[in-house]
Amino acid sequence: MSAILQETSKRADWVLGIDIGGSGSRAALEPVSGGAGGAGGAGAAVGTRHLFEAEPVSISPNGSSALPVIASLIERVRAERPDAALAGVGIGATGLASLVVSPAASLASLSASAGAPVALAIDAVTAHLGALGGSAGAVVAVGTGSIAIGTDFRDVWRRVGGWGHLYDDRGSGAWIGIEGLKAAIQTHDGVTTDAPALLSAAVSRFGPAPTWPSQLYTRDDRGAVLAGFAADVAGLASVGDDVATRIMATAGALVAGTLAAALDPALPARAAGVGGVFASGAAFTAAFAEAFARIAPDATLVEPAGGPLDGAVELARLVAADEVVAAHPPFIWR
């Protein structure tokens, strides 16, 4: 153990959870001995969670910006709360396994910056920890992207989805945004006449349709921009627009299929869904529940105890207590 970690371990009394996403990044600083709180899952008592926000991940020819965003959040927390000595840091990040060349190579520098041991995980792992509190089962996380994992954190690690919005992320915010724009551009071109409301919403957000390619194809944060339009699609679905409702219902059914595929026979048939898209309205959630019951009739769908940020805090507590599961790339790095 380095000198800085030895010194910190004598007085460390906080943990830091970090959730790095395509639409935004957050960190939560909590007392290491905190009980249930936060969003209903692992966390400190009400009033003791300190939140920090940062930019979303961007994707360029050099890969993901996840590691620089993580490093900047750690530096910010240390600068703004120099009194909060850290006992452990837990990090969940989108694209960590697919778009970061060597997550393990960053651990030493992140640990030195935090003055504490660090665990890195893909976002599905921290979503699972937040939703099921460390119990075995399957969890799907749906935000800008969509990814599911079935695991017992020991022997079974079953990943489904999370391969990006170009050809995957079924039912995610980016997927919904793409489907909304597809319907809008077809009505703009006169191929269909059924999506005038979506066309109007797209023009309000992005400007005239001929400008959309230059706005979207050239952006490093294209997934987040597409996911932003998902809010307009969901809003139109909530007031009964037929095309928007169909898109949201299809998204819910696709997410159910992703979650069901993560139910490994070696795991308890217990599942949950987390992420911002689950707050998008009844068209999505009803279709999700109906499709999951049809695809996986023997599985139990439970309410999540917390979200991905809660799971990152729980991972930090496990690190601080030296109880975290062993490193298991490409899911967890220690």
Explain what the structure shows.
Residues 1-10 and 36-46 have low confidence and may be disordered. The chain is globular, with a radius of gyration of 20 Å. It folds into two domains: 3-132 and 307-333, ATPase, nucleotide binding domain (Nucleotidyltransferase, domain 5); 134-304, ATPase, nucleotide binding domain (Nucleotidyltransferase, domain 5). Helices cover 42% and strands 20% of the residues. The strands form four sheets. Strands 5-2-1-8-9-15 form a six-stranded mixed beta sheet. Strands 12-11-10-13-14 form a five-stranded mixed beta sheet, sandwiched between helices. A two-stranded antiparallel ribbon has the order 3-4. It has twelve helices and 15 strands. It has helices spanning 3-9, 66-80, 96-99, 107-114, 123-132, 173-189, 196-206, 212-216, 222-238, 242-261, 282-295, 308-320, and strands at 14-20, 25-31, 36-37, 41-42, 50-54, 59-60, 63-64, 86-93, 118-122, 137-142, 146-151, 157-161, 270-274, 300-301, 332-333. By secondary structure, the protein is α/β, with parallel strands linked by helices. It comes from Agromyces humatus. Residues 16-280 form the ATPase BadF/BadG/BcrA/BcrD type domain. Pfam families: BcrAD_BadFG. This is BadF/BadG/BcrA/BcrD ATPase family protein.
